[in-house]
Amino acid sequence: MQKGKESKPHIGIYGRRNNGKSSLINMLAGQDVAIVSDFAGTTTDPVKKSFEITGFGPVILVDTAGIDDVGELGEKRVSKTLESIKQVDLAMLVVTENTWGEFEEKLVGEFNSTDTPFIVVYNKSDIIPASDSFKNFVANDHNRGFIETSCLDYKTAEPLINLIKRVIPESSYKVPTLLGDLVSYGDIVLLITPIDVEAPAGRLILPQVQAIRDVLDNDAVAIVLKEREVDAFLRKTKVKPALAVTDSQIFVKADASIPRDIPLTSFSILLARFKGDFDNYLKGTSKISELKDGDRVLLLESCTHHVSCDDIGRVKIPRWISNFTGKQLEFDFVAGLSELPRSITDYALVIQCGGCMITRKQIINRLRPAVEAGIPVTNYGMAIAYVQGIYLRAVAPFTSGNISNTDYL
């Protein structure tokens, strides 16, 4: 599972080989979406299946290789299985035959280290039911949801779905608001959307679409225009928006056009608060000023895309940061959720994109190694605002002015 392209809840299925993980997916889906075999090790790399669980909603189920896989290839499969835990919102640990040992403990350790809630699913109960002692062990030692299932009995699917509903974090399927706490009924929100070489043909980019929908969901009015139309629009209409949101790369133009008494931020910063590690972004952004010659900066993109000659992440941000600091810096770029090219401790700063294509859980776990190592992290839009001298204004809608000039400088 190299990259997350869906913001639906991700549910990972984990356990030993031939414990019926794929059969469990088919039971939940109500159809054959996963390959089932009597031979252990049928599932290799983690595979994502997107479908609707009746009574719950759309989800991504992640079918993984057995945690007890063997051999050189088996070790690689196990490594990918463990890596996928960082990207799921709920884990289902599938066990059978009243068996619990080092493999299950290893998975539980990974669940706990990534703050991943999990349930224990005792499968193939029609063959060997769970003993009372086993049930008590799971309940007492791991204090997680426990349920018995049989993939031959579809009646066991409903209790499992009900357990999923109880345990999965509400934040994984309840859609919060991008800007609902910033606007009121009938407010006008100005969305400044440049149409340049990086804009997709015939459509807007996802963060812009999300912002429009969020404005409408909050019973406000969205006005969408290009940056060169802003001055004329404000002059001719005398409209005073409650909020202006701009593409980060035209922050300077928007800052000059939008009166100071109108809050201004960017689509990327909205996303940073919506699903990123916003508190750590606030702490880390000013560290840009402390970069030294030879420091290495890591830029994390949430998706893969065609790189233009003036790409925002790979060209503009490195250029702006280099010019701002006056230092000779090295930049690495990682797309999707691919592995890093070097140890996280080799970096002086990590810059995460808005993350419109992945879940908050995936972003938080993507940044966790840097945060735990004390490496400052920030976001595309916040970094751009900082080096262009308008950081305080750009984050003010979310901080109530609690960031001082001392923090900024």
Q: How would you describe the overall organization of this protein?
A:
- The structure is a single chain.
- The chain is an alpha/beta fold.
- It has three domains: 10-172, Rossmann fold, CATH 3.40.50.300; 188-269, Rossmann fold (3-Layer(aba) Sandwich), CATH 3.40.50; 277-408, Rossmann fold, CATH 3.40.50.11410.
- Helices cover 36% and strands 17% of the residues.
- It contains 15 helices and 14 strands.
- The chain has helices at 21-29, 71-84, 102-113, 132-142, 157-167, 206-217, 230-237, 251-257, 267-275, 278-284, 312-325, 360-372, 380-387, 391-399, 405-408, and strands at residues 10-15, 47-53, 57-63, 90-95, 118-122, 145-148, 188-192, 221-225, 243-246, 264-266, 296-300, 330-334, 349-352, 377-379.
- The chain has a six-stranded mixed beta sheet, with helices on both faces.
- α11 packs parallel to α13 (380-387) and α13 packs across α14.
- The protein is globular.
